[in-house]
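On clarity, I found the account of how folds are encoded harder to follow than it need be. Since the whole study asks how a given chain folds, the encoding of that fold should be made plain. The format is easy to grasp once an entry is in front of the reader. For illustration, here is how one protein appears when written out as sequence plus structure tokens.
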Amino acid sequence: MLKHLLVGLAAFGLSTLTVAAPVEGQDYTVLDTPVKTQVDDNQIEVTGVFWYGCPHCYNLEEPLNAWVAELPDDVTFNRLPATMGDTWVKHAFAYYAAENLGIVDEMHDDFFEALHEQGKRLTDPDDIAAFFSNYGVSEEDALSALNSFGVKSQVSKANTRMRDMELMGVPALVVDGRYVISPSSAGSLSNMPLIAGSLIEQIREEHGAAANDNSQTDTTEVNNQE
């Protein structure tokens, strides 16, 4: 019920909905060593970590997509396919191959549905290539992408990044390379984006305070020089 309510509220600015003062160690955890973000300094990064075969990841997609669609300009959302097992890695290859072929936005939700609604496995490269052909890509090009050095490198980097995030399961939302939100910490899948929204507000306030401190320092230096 909450999932459908959140989706219905998307038109009214779902990204602005938050939970009051999320509590560290209860609603989210903090990484001992922050992970370097992949966005500009004026951006706040949210990373959605998932596995196509995970039913909880599949159920999170609807409220998460509605939330992402309403994010303000200073927030960047990135997806990170998890690599915790052989099948996971094969699906990570599929994700990055689709990204390199320019079809990831079209096929992402359909890939989830093929696994969870149609009972497909989509682990064999030929099967993945045939699936990609539904999006205007030749099977030959799909196989080439799946086997490319670039995609292998992306999967390797995803594996390293996931280890650095100290993740033990999915789905997870990692905010600003520091804060990790899981279904258990959030209390429900639908709460995960709301807690992320509250953390984004906190980070935005931190950025504002830092900017004010820098401005005051610059003013003091100018006055001293005079």
